[in-house]
Amino acid sequence: MKNFMILTESINFIELNICEPITRQDIAKHCHVSLSTLEKLYRYALRVSIKNYISRRRITQAAEDIKKFSVNITDAAMKYQFNSVEVFSRAFKRVWTVNPSEFIRDKRRFTGIFPKINFEYNESEGLEMARKKVDISEAYDYIKSMAGSLVLCFDLRHLSAINDISVKAGDLAIFEAIARIEAAAGDDMIVIRVGGDEFALFTGLYDYDAAEKLSAKVLAKNGEPVLYGDKEISVSLWCGIAKVPAQLRYSEFFTDMHQVINESKK
User: What confidence tens digit (pLDDT) does each residue in 81-98 have?
Assistant: First the structure.
């Protein structure tokens, strides 16, 4: 439980200071642990370094500012503590595969590539399950408004094995999964990342046959590879269908989505 508390406190500290010039040492000091201990915990639980986690969170927030709120690139770079637009653009491209100006022109709507991890202590689950849970509280009102409609719940297959090749390879697989879901989605449908390798497509549909056809359109691409360097990486998804409950409690809804994904794996 101590590790959960340290991770939760450090992640909350990062979120509160996401636009401030914090250091890894600042975070460790705040959590009353050594930097080496905190770094090991991040690499074990999140499979990224502290620096990488902060950069990804800043790039994710910056993408939302640029796309949804029309913040200009220079202001976004300065807001999220990048030393220059050039440094910001390089970091942005590592995450999104395109530079910020291309991202603005892109038709994609998804911006939550690396949401805040939402650790909840449950002794029976452990760190592996906990790191799948992300904070989608900002989408609560939207999800609540979709009560009774159907959600396609996707899980990226074998992400751990892909991450073993390289974290960048894992990022590429995640990006490809999102691209496939968005390509099949209608203009009024929203994709949200609800776990480390899990995504929810809020369809607005109420007919199961229509939802299954939409799912089949995404899954038809299963096995198609993406190129990482000179290596082909197969990308495939599982999919289950859930319904947005009339009385929305996120923790229960998350469990429902995870259960339908597990059923799809059978």
Answer: 999 999 999 999 888 888
